Amino acid sequence: MFRYSYPWWKEKEIDSEKKRRDGLCPLTPEETALTLSALNIDSKIQVYIAAGDTYKSAKRMASLKEAFPNLVGKQNKTFS
User: What are the pLDDT digits (tens) for 32-45?
Assistant: First the structure.
């Protein structure tokens, strides 16, 4: 509630390049696939996508879906 008292609370500059350098951004679907594969994680495991529709593009999710086909999200949504 406090933040809504200030109309400018959403107005902030986010330097995504700096955030990535500082390790403060989540992995992309491509990076996730590479990391899980490098760790020899079984490709049959269920991977839960907690971010919801952050990556709306099927193209962005394709490499993760290819490497780990058992992807699910909120409300048991499957990624086709």
Answer: 999 999 999 999 99
Domains of the chain, by residue range, sit at: 26-80
Minimal CA–CA distance to 30: which of 7, 62, 4, 6? 62
Distance (Å, rounded) from C-alpha 31 to C-alpha 13? 25
Contact 28, 52 (CB under 8 A): no
- Secondary structure (DSSP) of 16-72: HHHHHHTT-SPPPHHHHHHHHHHTT--TTS-EEETTTTSS--HHHHHHHHHH---EE
Distance CA 42, CA 60 (A): 21
CB-count burial class (<10 Å; 0-12, 13-18, 19+) for 73: middle
Residue 69 has pLDDT above 90, yes or no: yes
Q: Is the separation of the CB atoms in 24 and 16 below 8 Å? A: no
